[in-house]
Specification:
By secondary structure, the protein is mostly helical. It has two domains: 148 residues, no CATH class; 182 residues, MFS general substrate transporter like domains (Growth Hormone, Chain: A, Up-down Bundle), CATH 1.20.1250.
């Protein structure tokens, strides 16, 4: 939508979108997360109820698809999707050994990407007939997810009491603090690059097509990164993965700034998305293993909120500055360079 209007008008729309994207995380961290931590059935029950609720939401969207209520329903859909993501991360340590968490997280990411692509075909065909048929297809998928979630272990990742001193100390350990900083830097670079390309390519011939190609390359690189996450973990430790990811962003960003072409921007997109996905796998594994006494659902809600703030901050800077292609690439390289130096010195 914002590519179809003037840059000045688009800037306001994008800023509103960025602010809107934060809202689900604020609600999750402040209200929903603490409530879910006290649910007797733990995250298993949460995932089951979420799946059924998302199925029901599809029917509600069908009912009010042509009214203003649709926007409120879509906001609820965003919130439920974020709650599910946090719950899924909290469940992983209970269904996979600690030394295989990075591989398991990568497998989940790979399956998510593949199934999303496969399901997109039937959904698109149904959409051509009626949007309500496509929504019905989504509802059936959510019901199936709820049924499958019943096989998860019972009573996992529940936390009925406040944060203990032990939990607080574990989450503030140097290992987790440094990893969180590295992950935040990767998310800042990701958010900045997305909107930098969106605005910069508007001034280029066939800019929309180039932007679509960049996003396609980014999605493919993310899928590949999730596929090789287990192999990378067998060769490198999680902290080394994060350090290398920052170094790669720094080097590729500065090289692409020197080249300054559209092709360089597309290459940088693929690289940034790939190392961002690997960094996410490494950070999740660190958080899942280095804080054994912490409530993981509460911890993941907290760090996902911080990471979303970091990504939105990068987007705000890109929209506010709207630099040239080479300057934007140099900023991304500088983000990676500063974070890599800090991480190496502190680690």
């Amino acid at each position: 939508m914002f590519l179809s209007v003037s840059p000045d008008a688009a800037r306001g729309r994008v800023l509103a979108f960025l602010a809107f994207s934060l809202a689900p995380f604020l609600i999750l961290a402040r209200f929903i997360g603490p409530f879910l931590d006290r649910v007797p059935g733990g995250r298993r029950l949460t995932i089951v109820v979420l799946s059924i609720a998302r199925a029901g939401l599809m029917f509600a969207i069908m009912r009010w698809i042509d009214s203003l209520s649709l926007f409120a329903l879509m906001f609820v859909a965003l919130v439920l999707a974020k709650v599910y993501g946090v719950s899924r991360s909290a469940v992983m340590p209970t269904v996979a050994p600690s030394d295989e968490l990075m591989a398991a997280n990568g497998q989940i990411g790979r399956l998510t990407g593949i199934v999303g692509i496969v399901a997109g075909g039937p959904a698109a065909l149904l959409q051509l007939i009626s949007s309500r048929l496509s929504l019905s297809f989504a509802a059936m998928c959510f019901v199936l997810a709820g049924i499958l979630a019943l096989s998860l272990p019972r009573g996992i990742a529940g936390a009925r009491g406040p944060e203990s001193d032990l939990e607080r100390n574990e989450l503030h350990s140097p290992s987790i603090v440094r990893a969180a900083m590295a992950m935040a830097a990767l998310r800042v670079a990701n958010g900045f690059l997305f909107f930098h390309l969106a605005f910069w390519l508007r001034t280029e011939k066939a800019g929309t097509a180039w932007f679509a190609l960049a996003l396609g390359i980014g999605s493919l690189s993310t899928l590949i990164a999730n596929s090789i996450g287990g192999l990378v973990r067998r060769v490198l430790r999680e902290h080394v993965v994060l350090e290398i990811a920052l170094v790669i962003v720094a080097v590729v960003g500065l090289v692409c700034a020197y080249v300054g072409s559209i092709t360089a921007g597309i290459v940088l997109t693929g690289v940034t998305y790939a190392v961002g996905a690997l960094g996410k796998l490494a950070f999740d594994s660190i958080l899942q293993t280095r804080a054994p006494d912490a409530n993981r659902s509460r911890a993941f809600a907290r760090y996902e909120t911080r990471n979303q703030f970091a990504q939105v901050a990068g987007g705000f800077v890109a929209v506010g500055l709207t630099p040239s292609g080479a300057v934007g690439f140099a900023i991304i390289g500088s983000i990676g360079l500063i974070a890599a130096i800090y991480y190496a010195v502190r680690y």
